[in-house]
């Protein structure tokens, strides 16, 4: 089995470890790094995976998954540069950071794959997009797709589209949470208890998502099936259009894309 080390065991890093274990990867073939000793002990107790330092992780692993915050990447790369073995695959889960950043710092020829996951990885339902750097082969990409398939779905895209992916699916769960929050508030405004409103909306959101995935129908078709002539739904849709909700979403996602581009340049 390939030994995988997760560098940075925050929520996403831990979710990946848990997904790999659930998919059958032995705990002995996994490692992780964590700056906070108490957190490291907690994760080892929960998952049976050893916590090590960055140089040891690099020396003992064939795949290194970088899951630190983008602002912490420079000191991590400084540690990796001296310890990385030739041929080690580096997988970046850091939003906005291009493969060229790693390739400029790490030893020449290091294969790098850039990934944009999202937080539903915590429940095994991530949407991840992978892109290969200059030295990443189809075999490298296939290995990363298999690894991420243990925690959700995966698509392969050119790296030039990663900023759009970051804006759309990387940040996407937040948009849905925002919408659900507003709908729960609407239920309270209409006189429903908060718990009842939340149950109604969360189950409706879950059911709608399952319908979209399993039917394969365009969202317009599914929406029209709920929209009766002169009914309640069309009255609500008219208000959404009148208040520019569609335009606001387009502008918000475009702004997220622009911010991802900015982070990559920095």
Describe this structure in words.
It is found in: Cytoplasm. Residues 159-263 form the Pyrroline-5-carboxylate reductase dimerisation domain. This is Pyrroline-5-carboxylate reductase. One of its GO terms (molecular function) is pyrroline-5-carboxylate reductase activity. It is an enzyme of class 1 (oxidoreductase). The chain is an alpha/beta fold and 266 residues long. The protein has 2 domains: 4-162, 3-Layer(aba) Sandwich (Rossmann fold), CATH 3.40.50.720; 172-265, ProC C-terminal domain-like fold, CATH 1.10.3730.10. 56% of the residues lie in helices and 13% in strands. The chain has 12 helices and 8 strands. The chain has helices at residues 11-22, 37-47, 54-60, 73-83, 99-105, 138-148, 162-170, 172-189, 194-215, 219-226, 232-242, 245-265; strands at 4-7, 30-33, 50-51, 63-66, 89-92, 112-116, 126-132, 152-156. The chain has an 8-stranded mixed beta sheet, sandwiched between helices. β2, α2 (37-47) and β3 form a beta-alpha-beta unit. α3 crosses α4 (73-83), α7 crosses α12 and α8 crosses α9. The protein is elongated and about 70 Å long. The two termini are 37 Å apart. The model has no long low-confidence stretch (mean pLDDT 94).
Instruction: Count all strands and give the number.
Output: 8
Low-confidence stretches: none
- The CATH superfamily name of the largest domain is NAD(P)-binding Rossmann-like Domain
> What is the CATH domain class of the largest domain?
Alpha Beta
Largest sheet: 8 strands, mixed
Averaged pLDDT: 94
CATH architecture of the largest domain: 3-Layer(aba) Sandwich
What's the number of domains? 2
Please bin the fraction of helical residues. 55-70%
**Through-space gap between termini:** 37 Å
Described by the principal axes of the CA atoms, the overall outline is elongated
Proportion of strand residues: 5-15%
Number of helices in the DSSP assignment: 12
Briefly note the CATH topology name of the largest domain: Rossmann fold
Radius of gyration, in angstroms, nearest whole number? 21 Å
The side-by-side strand order for the widest beta sheet comes to 3-2-1-4-5-6-7-8
Order of helices and strands: EHEHEHEHEHEEHEHHHHHH
Q: Helix/strand/pairing class, anyone?
A: alpha/beta
